[in-house]
Amino acid sequence: MVLCAEPPPKLKIPESKITELADDACHDSPKLERRTRMHHIERHRSCVVTLSDMELNDLQPRRLLQTLEVSKSPGTGSQCSLHEETPTDTNASHRRAIADAAWEALKRSIVYFRGQPIGTVAAIDKSQGAALNYDQVFMRDFIPSALAFLMKGEHLIVKNFLVETARLQSREKMVDLFKLGQGVMPASFKVHHRNPTLKTESLLADFGETAIGRVAPVDSGLWWIILLRAYTRWTGDNSLAESPNCQRAMHLILRLCLSEGCDTSPALLCADGCSMIDRRMGIYGYPIEIQALFFMAMRCALSMLKQDSDADFVNHITKRIQALSYHLHSYYWLDFQRLNDIYRYKTEEYSQTALNKFNVIPESIPDWIFDFMPSRGGYFIGNVSPARMDFRWFCLGNFIAILSSLATGEQAEAILDLVEERWEELIGEMPLKICYPAMENQEWQIVTGCDPKNTRWSYHNGGSWPVLLWLLVAVSVKLGRPHLARRAMELMERRLAKDEFPEYYDGKAGRYVGKQARKYQTWSVAGYLVAKMLLDDPSHLRIIALEDDGHSRSRAPCLKRSNSCP
Known about the structure:
InterPro entries: 6-hairpin_glycosidase_sf, 6hp_glycosidase-like_sf, Glyco_hydro_100. By secondary structure, this protein is an alpha+beta fold.
């Protein structure tokens, strides 16, 4: 059946017209006799074609015949049938053209410092006027670029990036009169030409003092450790990770994250806008994205810290990994049964065996979650803190949980089950929703502060981000479900290159290029390339995925209802 954008009245094509069109489509099959052909057309007597915006008599035969396919089935010979075009019609040459365009764009984005490649700019869109900070090299944005370069065999740019950012970390960092912790990594940096005549260059780093909202990037240091492990794992070169500068950088990052405070939780306390979602979106507290990255960074660091490292420090990391794993499995995991338990929670429980430890009021559960949660599937929710559970789905945190083996095997499968069950909501027409659902109306006003960039189904508020495709492909390959990855790839290949690799898409289904999206956004380009290479050669997954070591997960004990519960 040929589908149309608007549902007009259905018209039946006369049998004679169908016969005529089928004859034209099948004229290249000399073995197909007219009697056989007429027999099969008779079988399609009830075929109804829905047409839009035109009368039947105005149809161009060529356009209609695009929906005719000559097919063969065992025992019936050749036959002509009406069918709908699908994403699988994208041929290999088209994919090669997209990949070639992506590699060209990625190479144009390379930044050089003193003659050496050092990173890639955020975007190379010249049509937007002011560059703002899109002409800088961002820590988190460079991750997919780095993975693409490593898998391509171009290691130098990744090594230079790691070395120079470790040097930037050692600089004194001031916001107004306040000095930031030594372990903070820059959100971004750019090459400053101090004297163009003498060609003297320096790097200017942003640690949050010039960022929107003046928030330090908590995720930058965690991504740096993960990338260092990816470089070491892929190249087999341990000398960089074992160098004094890199060892010091890891120690500073983790000591900052492991520092003791007044928290009763092993999770990392963060301000709003401290990660990929870098604007006010209600993720303050203990967002799942940061917790999953923290877990993965600690595991990566343990594999790279030198044998003569401080034993107490290593032991501290190990214990924090186990405590964080226990905490996230106990309080962040949500599936149908767990949702039903929370729905029946009692409040004001006082005891060690309380089930509702954070005193979450069941009436605060949003209505949408009851329809969204399938019987098969589950995920780590966005945030947990006193009297608050953020039930939103956050893509990055859940996929990093799978890649880092924070999620158990059953949980990992359940997360992909959820994606498959809620494909239209989370994937739509352009992968991939950064979070779901979008906030709107009064909730949007209160939580975002009426942010005009984060309106409903746009940007970080339910927008669709092509860069997240590489994560979906990686977890699909890890779990042996590449059909999900291919399905998403085919969707993206329809439009990504034609739309000039935009930063994000808007709309509930991701149909529209984002209203403020930059074109040729580098991590959209690199994300596609990494996804393609992972699908072409699944062995590349070793660059980013961690296997379950059996020691990093502590099981939550089975708790009984407390005595304070009526």
